[in-house]
Amino acid sequence: PNIAKAIIDWFARYSNQQVLLRLKESGVWPSSDKTSNQISGNIPLAGLVFVVTGKLKEYSRGNIKHIIQEAGGKVTGSVSSKTDFVLVGEDPGSKRDKAQELGIKIISELEFKEMIIDFIKQQEG
User: Fold this and answer.
1) Where are the beta strands (DSSP E) in 1-125?
2) Distance from C-alpha of 29 to C-alpha of 26, rounded to nearest angstrom
3) Helix or strand (DSSP H, E) at 109
4) What was the pLDDT predicted at 107?
5) How do strand 85-88 and strand 49-53 relate by DSSP bridges?
6) Could you tell me which residues are beta bridge partners of residue 55?
7) Which one of 6, 31, 42, 118 has the minimum C-beta count within 10 Å?
8) What is the mean pLDDT of residues 51-59?
9) What is the mean pLDDT of residues 78-101?
10) How far is CA 38 from CA 32, 33, 97, in A?
11) Would you say 91 and 55 are in contact if contact means Cβ atoms under 8 Å apart?
12) pTM, entire model
């Protein structure tokens, strides 16, 4: 909380806003390069494609999608040969069947948690 407050205070100062404006006008501006983060291995689900099916016990659909994306993965709505994992909840339906046909790894919520447990701990700490 103290660090966050200090950062907010820094950005709130007029003189610092002017410095940032001059930097931006000069073409010096920070940007995010998620690809380099993924390549470095700091993101546990980097480049992996997930499909979520069925009713999850511990996550909402939006929450699980956010977690996967924050951990470097991608969520799609349909199973294809490009899918790496199908996360299965209760009553999964045809997406699980399609994954089985294609030989795609099917995981439970528990298995998913184990995949990203360290990532979640880092985010909370």
Assistant:
1) 49-53, 74-76, 85-88, 105-107
2) 8
3) helix 109-124
4) 94
5) parallel
6) 90
7) 31
8) 91
9) 94
10) 12, 9, 30
11) yes
12) 0.62
